[in-house]
Task: structure prediction
Amino acid sequence: MGQFGLDRRLFILKFGVTFTLVSLIGVFWYVQVIKRERYLGLSQDNRIRRVWIPAPRGKILDRHGLVMVDNRPSFDVAIEYEAIKRKKVPLNFLAASLGTTPDRIEQVTRSYHGPAYLSVPIERDVNMDLLTQVEEARFKMPWVTVEENPVRAYLLGDCASSILGYVGAINRQEYETLKDRGYHWLDVIGRTGVENSCESYLRGESGGMQIEVDSRGYREQILSIKRPVRGRDVYLTLDMKIQQTLEEILREKRAVGIVMNPNTGEILAAVSRPGFDLNVFIKPDLKEEALKLFKDPNRPLMNRVFQGSYAPGSIFKLVVASAGLDTGVMNETSLVHCSGSVKIGGSTFRCWKELGHGEVTLEEAIRYSCNVFFYQLGLNLGPERMAKYAKKFGFGEPTGLDVGGDRAGVIPSPLWKRQKLHEGWFRGDTANFAIGQGFVSVTPLQMAVMVSTLANGGKLFSPSLVKKVVLPDGRTLIEMGPKEKGSLGLSTSVLSLIKKGMWEVVNEGDGTGRAARLDSVEISGKTGTVQVVQHDQMIKNGWFVSFAPSQNPKYVLVLLVEGVESGGHDVAPLAKEIYERIL
Result:
């Protein structure tokens, strides 16, 4: 080989070595200078874990500070999502350690919708035996973590269940909507009741920490920490002594009970039966029980107090009587003869008393609950005027309840029937309307508002359930007060006559509500009975509405019991028992 060939080869070798060194220096400079922050971050990500710390929700308390809903510690077993993605997790071993199946673990991880660097909870709220077992096996499973979380504790079981409501985990769609408002994918959110309506107060502010781990994933040190902030406490207007009295008396029934302060609109008790234990929505081992509630034909999950829609029956006669007196269609001396039935538009409309009540005044018609009297009064008034006065009392629209969620009910009219049913209005519709049957429907809450308005002299209050909201440090954030919507505009003489009739219902020997009479305290009330179809069977719903004491009302009590003989026979005695215990 000549000198030229040797020099050429040496040149190529030198050039190659130089090019390689320059390239390495260039790459090193690119990594260390240009991409330093990125690769430093990747390096740190391998040894730094970001741990979410959930915030406890605020407590829910009654008006006297009795805690009804609190938090308790629970422990979840979770797996690092990155380990799952890289298939580092031996599912069979993990499933055996957790007492579950590989299929269940895969199902849970498939439904995961959080960031890749977080852990996926596999088993929630585990017992101490399983927790000990997992901790003992963690040297073989460094990607398994045990996380402490606060969970809801419903301290009174099924007491006020439909009012308090329950929480549930955020689903994928909700997370996409709520993440910009500070929600974490593992957060819970109020689903129903006060838990839902007061969500903005009850939810806290999540915390978090950064921890450094070793090559096996074990914690070495905490780098930074942000403490969670507990949610605000919500004090309700409920009085648990009164609430539990109603719960006990109505427990075995399909029923609704409300106690309201007529002078403020505060709800002191609200019972919807059948109820349910709120804890079934919290404990993982009770999921089957929760599913049964959704399928139960008795609909225990429905809040009958705010959302139940019922024909008011003879209770509505109080509205019609007010309209008749205020318009001058009838007065206190007007008489109607009740023979037990009356012909209207070719049909026979009957009174509940087969042989009739004879000549009756309006006051007596309230006491006896005479249908024939109110058929005639309703026909004289007409449907439009009855609807007008019904709306004065708050029927036909939501009550303005501070937590919302109540239904409007239906106050019919010829226009309503034409628009909804595409049918004309008949005189028989007017007669049925006058005794609270036919198309008219109301909620028990609306009934309580109506009776409160009569009891307090004509002031219409929006009902309230929240008394105050208190910060974690004990300072009051919001103090609620009575919210007066307006006045009935009825004269004192009209109101006095209506209330006198209600007094006679209970305190006269022939009043329909005499079974509610107390010797110690005077009660004023009104009975109602409505025949309805339920589950393809004809049943009767019984009403009894009242206020006490009659001269200086402190409480309004509304009771509705499904499947009874009558309001006077079956429901009035329950009111007596309640008043005996709360007055």
Observations:
- The first strand starts at residue 48 and ends at 53.
- The mean pLDDT is 87.
